[in-house]
């Protein structure tokens, strides 16, 4: 598996980004302002992440997605660790990420990768998404914010 930056003019795999974020409008907004990195297995894109600068010396990992047939194989962890390394190599001092209160697997993954919970953005998903999001039988309402110094 190779992880690389999306080339200029290359279209990001929106279908993958929508696995992690169901709002096409929000996805289009942050991919226009951030940098996309893709994981390839041969010539097939199997994962993606997006880094979005937010403040001086701070970047947010706004989307991490893995093609469903490749989930549970360590691809997501490799993407997160690559994002941390890339952010550090680009001079950022802090990397942040947010995920839903119902995203139990993602919360575990991010903490295993060194992130710590820093706050909760209450009712984020119910305010910013038209459709209800249900994961693991739980209504996704709140954004759990995590961060790490790099």
List keywords for this structure.
150 residues; alpha+beta; Aminopeptidase; 7-stranded mixed beta sheet; two-stranded antiparallel ribbon; 5 helices
What is the topology?
Layout: E1 2-5, H1 14-20, H2 24-33, E2 35-41, E3 44-55, E4 58-66, H3 75-89, E5 94-100, H4 104-112, E6 116-121, H5 124-128, E7 134-135, E8 138-139, E9 143-149
Parallel strand pairs: 4-5
Antiparallel strand pairs: 1-2, 2-3, 3-4, 5-9, 6-9, 7-8
Q: How would you characterize this protein structure?
A:
The protein is globular and about 35 Å long. The chain has a seven-stranded mixed beta sheet, with helices on both faces. The chain has a two-stranded antiparallel sheet with strand order 7-8. It has one domain (2-149): Gcn5-related N-acetyltransferase (GNAT) (Aminopeptidase). Helices cover 31% and strands 37% of the residues. The chain is α+β, with helices and mostly antiparallel strands and 150 residues long. The protein has five helices and nine strands; from the N terminus they run βααβββαβαβαβββ. Strand 2 (35-41) and strand 3 form a beta hairpin.
Number of helices: 5
| CATH homolog superfamily | Gcn5-related N-acetyltransferase (GNAT)
Specify the biggest β-sheet.
7 strands, mixed
Radius of gyration, CA atoms, in whole angstroms: 15 Å
The poorly predicted ranges are none
Give the % helix.
25-40%
The tally of strands reads 9
* Alpha-carbon distance between the two ends: 24 Å
- What is the averaged pLDDT score? 95
CATH architecture: 3-Layer(aba) Sandwich
Strand content: 35-45%
Counted up, domains total 1
Oligomeric state:
single chain
CATH class: Alpha Beta
Strand ordering within the main sheet: 1-2-3-4-5-9-6
Helices and strands: which structural class? alpha+beta
Order of helices and strands: EHHEEEHEHEHEEE
CATH domain topology: Aminopeptidase
> What best-fitting shape do the alpha-carbon axes yield?
globular
